[in-house]
Please model this.
Amino acid sequence: MARELHSARLLSKSLISESAQCYHFDFVLEDLESFPFISGQFISAVATDSNGKQQTRAYSIASAANLNHFELCVNRVPQGFFSNHLADLIDLPPSGRIQVHGPHGHFILKQPITDSIFISTGTGIAPMRGFAQWLFPETGPDAGIDRSEGKEIWMVYGTRYESELYYREEFEALAARKPNFHYLPTLSRADESWKGLRGYVQEHVARIVEERAARLGQPLPAPPPDPTILPAELKFDIYAYICGLNNMVASVRERLAGYGWHRKQIIFERYD
Ligand SMILES: Cc1cc2nc3c(=O)[nH]c(=O)nc-3n(C[C@H](O)[C@H](O)[C@H](O)COP(=O)(O)OP(=O)(O)OC[C@H]3O[C@@H](n4cnc5c(N)ncnc54)[C@H](O)[C@@H]3O)c2cc1C
Model:
């Protein structure tokens, strides 16, 4: 595992949700020509707290690989050290710097690409944005390439209020451009004006799974895979990728297991 520390300079920071105190960050690693990573991976950020103690926290990269840049999506955690340290960074030298090592992690897309359900809440959207940018690049040398191979991609995103739909315009624009990309934001505390989905992500994931199985004439619960195939060699025609706090991750995993989904079909990243 790469442990070499790099200095990351903050290029820009924007508040993307006032109510959730969530920020988007664009960093550049000036000592590197390129920072290769696989969409969905995270960096470890290192800083010294007010007691002189070195603190390290993981943050999913909220972008696809792009030269020596990486982006983050972080919300302030009350009384938390690192999230507030980041949110208070000023995008001017010398203060706007953090130390990072990485990339790390195995929360990455299975190859070849299959139908996929991306499920997240809160800042769990970060690696999903990285997935979407890799599948459907809009900038850089790969702009216009479509790596989805026509597979259905559902992006189910849960939050409380409309004001907390991070990157909403980006995902809506992508869904308008790509008929196989489905953006499904759902609100648990929507006001009356909200016309979209309501409730928790697991309800909408269940509907996607049921409708797809019916459309393809597949039985639900799915029958167990052939026991002669080694777990490492199992292949599935759909995977779920889940990212966020453990309660949500556990609820979605349980729901999918109830449909006979194999544990290898469910890839997840827990933030707590
Ligand atoms: C692989 C991985 C990727 C991650 N990616 C992201 C990301 O992209 N964006 C992001 O914002 N966070 C992400 N996190 C969470 C992040 O690492 C920190 O835990 C978070 O920023 C809080 O750190 P802190 O130092 O501010 O709080 P701490 O000082 O560590 O904790 C303060 C208090 O808040 C509680 N707490 C810790 N984390 C959370 C949380 N996420 N929500 C609510 N309460 C919490 C703790 O239990 C503690 O009581 C990720 C975590 C992991 C493991």
Summary: Residues 115-270 form a domain with the Rossmann fold fold (CATH 3.40.50.80). Residues 42, 57-60, 73-75, 77, 79-84, 123, 126, 269, 271-272 surround flavin-adenine dinucleotide (CB under 6 Å). The radius of gyration is 19 Å.
